[in-house]
Write a structure and sequence with these properties.
Blueprint: H1 2-16, E1 32-37, E2 61-66
């Protein structure tokens, strides 16, 4: 059985470019980017940010937290 499993694994890697056949994420990739915007909750991701692929175990989402701040950051310029 080991040789059949190895052949199947190699075939899946070759055809899918190493991507998981279930979620489509590459082995070195991150989850799909989703925004978390506290000022505009209607634009936020409403799923579970900790959800993982049932086959490969990778996180399906990478959450980006949108922050609005009036202060200038280091090296920021205002007006050009």
């Amino acid at each position: 059985m080991g040789s059949i499993e190895g052949r199947l694994r190699r075939l899946e890697e070759r055809e899918g470019g190493g991507s998981c056949p279930e979620c489509g994420l590459p082995p070195d990739g991150h989850g799909y980017l989703v925004p978390m915007d506290e000022e505009h909750p209607e634009k936020c991701f409403d799923g579970n940010p900790a959800e993982r692929c049932g086959r490969c175990g990778r996180f399906l989402y990478t959450v980006i937290r949108v922050v609005y701040d009036d202060t200038e950051g280091e090296g920021a310029t205002v007006g050009g």
